[in-house]
Design goal:
With 551 residues, the chain is an alpha/beta fold. The protein has 21 helices and 16 strands. It has 2 domains: 3-128, no CATH class; 185-549, Alpha/Beta hydrolase fold, catalytic domain (Rossmann fold), CATH 3.40.50.
Length: 551
């Protein structure tokens, strides 16, 4: 067979697999098998055989994690059949994950292999079967079979309207502008990419320097403006900040060419508008997740022009250095990036449902099978929860921005200085403004140590805050929750573990120490104006604006 023909055939196979398995999970699992076949696999299978013998004899000591919701029913402990079934499942799940460790991959391949293993073992859990889940059996008996009928109805509805995935929220329970995103304000600037909302002051005096929030492009801004008492926007105006937020337009195929530079320019225009309204030359920013990537690119661009438009910057659960191991880093492989780039180039956008499905895959037990059991086996209605309602209201990414993000993931262009905006290379070490950086201890997307790395990239003085929660919980984190804590201190060590050893967590939210930090960098206070906007930027549509409603 000619080499060129064999190469072309292999390329066709890889392209076909890329369409079926865009994350390369099957390939990662195949590598596990190849690396462990002659040594680790036989040894691990022997270990599994020994453990299963102990399970059958009732001598196994395996127990589920106390936080594992799947095995909370007392039958898993008291019923001999269920107890052994649980132990056998946990035994082979543990062996499967140990095989991934035995393969000794680089961390990105290891993350893909672990994800593939977790997806398979999570799907095969006995709790997912109506015949093996004691909770489902009890519910069917208690309801006279009505839970079974309801579950079948839910499955049919999800197949038709939700791509076969179980719904995780009642989408009709909340209305944006009535139940969510209710902080009073108005649109004071709009272009084709974004709106800028200004919120009404809640104090007699306000800080001179305006505060502009930059949300991620993959979600709508109002997760930081949920119901009163759970709103970061509300908290900020109560602290006397002149609060603005960007609300991104939900792009369609016609916006396929909007790239990182497009969004950097949009943030730049919005910040200038906030400064004009506030009557200042500078603004502060608070950027969230991927919004922080955009702000960092803007900061680097401004630094190249010696422009100090942004006085201080906050980055919450944002990754700028993609060499630090984190789950989202599994996306950084040439094959995955090329598959994703090719897909969005055809469609013009990354569909919202694709991003949502990907994030659900990263935590299948909590974000897929939990709702499968509740909705379809127990016959329950999807829950009513504001954060989940917002999460279901996701947005698309234009193809060009998606490609730029993929390049940043794969080549670490922001951290290495090889990313450019309007032709000027981005050197984050030249960004001299102070920064407040937030990580979340149990974040499954942006590991806190990877977030900490941001403090080592920027040239100014950094303060780091470590929240006790996960990715979204750390952001929607109002003060007063006794179960939350935060550790914070100025960064003077490159090692995150050494930094952590010098701190003492205190009960509360990062919002509180951040507000003190930001207030010290927001100028003096003056009487709040009675009206929003200015002559140049008059108030328009009331908050939450128009773009937030785009389907």
């Amino acid at each position: 067979m000619p080499k060129w023909f064999a190469s072309e055939r292999m390329g066709s196979v890889r392209r076909a697999l890329g369409r079926v398995d865009p994350l390369g999970l099957a390939g990662a699992m195949a590598q596990v098998g190849a690396r462990t076949a002659t040594n680790a696999l036989p040894r691990r299978m022997a270990d599994l055989g020994v453990e299963l013998t102990k399970v059958a004899a009732g001598r196994s000591s395996i127990t589920p994690d106390a936080k594992d919701w799947r095995f909370e029913n007392r039958a898993w402990k008291e019923n001999p059949f269920y107890h052994r079934l649980c132990q056998a499942y946990l035994a082979w799940t543990r062996i499967a994950l140990e095989l991934v460790d035995d393969a000794q991959f680089d961390w990105r391949t290891a993350e893909r292999a672990k994800l593939a293993t977790i997806l398979v073992t999570a799907a095969l859990a006995p709790t997912n079967s109506p015949f093996l889940n004691p909770d489902a059996i009890e519910r069917a008996y208690e309801t006279g079979g009505r839970s079974v009928v309801t579950g079948l109805r839910n499955i049919s509805r999800d197949v038709v309207s939700n791509g076969g995935l179980p719904r995780f929220v009642d989408r009709d329970a909340f209305v944006v502008g009535r139940d969510l995103a209710v902080s009073p304000g108005a649109v004071v600037f709009r272009n084709e990419v974004c709106e800028l909302l200004q919120f009404a002051p809640a104090t007699d005096t306000v800080h001179a320097t305006p505060l502009v929030m930059v949300p991620p492009q993959i979600n709508k801004y109002y997760f930081m403006d949920l119901a009163p008492g759970r709103s970061f926007v509300e908290f900020c105006v109560q602290q006397g900040f002149q609060m603005f937020t960007i609300s991104w337009r939900n792009p369609t195929e016609e916006h396929r060419d909007w790239g990182l530079t497009t969004y950097v320019d949009a943030v730049n225009d919005a910040v200038h508008a906030a400064c004009e309204i506030a009557g200042t030359d500078q603004a502060n920013t608070v950027s969230l997740c991927a919004g922080g990537i955009t702000t960092a690119a803007l900061l680097g661009h401004l630094a190249s022009k010696q422009d100090d438009l942004i006085h201080c910057a906050t980055f919450a659960v944002t990754l700028l250095d993609f060499t630090v191991p984190t789950m989202i880093g599994l996306l950084a492989s040439p094959a995955i990036v090329e598959n994703a780039r090719r897909s969005t180039k055809r469609s013009g956008v990354l569909p919202a449902r694709h991003a949502s499905a990907l994030f659900s895959m990263l935590r299948p037990n909590d974000l897929i099978w939990n709702y499968w059991v509740r909705n379809n086996l127990m016959g329950e209605d999807p829950p009513t929860f504001d954060v989940l309602a917002w999460n279901a209201d996701s947005t698309r990414l234009p193809a060009a921005l998606h490609a730029d993000f993929l390049d940043i993931f794969l080549h670490n262009t922001l951290a290495t200085g090889s990313c450019a905006v309007h032709g000027s290379p981005i050197d984050l070490s030249k960004v001299e403004c102070d920064s407040f950086v937030v990580g979340a201890r149990t974040d499954h997307l942006t590991a806190w140590k990877a977030c900490y790395a941001t403090t080592q990239l920027l040239g100014g003085t950094s303060q780091f805050a470590l929240s006790s929660s996960g990715h979204i919980q750390s952001l929607v984190n109002p003060p007063g929750n006794p179960r939350m804590n935060v550790a914070t201190a100025e960064v003077n060590d490159a090692d995150p573990d050494r930094w952590l050893s010098t701190t003492t967590p205190v009960t509360g939210s990062w919002w509180e120490p951040w507000a003190v930090w930001a207030a010290a960098r927001s100028g003096g206070r003056h009487p709040a104006r009675a009206s929003l906007g200015s002559a140049v930027h008059p108030p328009g549509d009331p908050a939450p604006g128009c773009y937030v409603f785009a389907p």
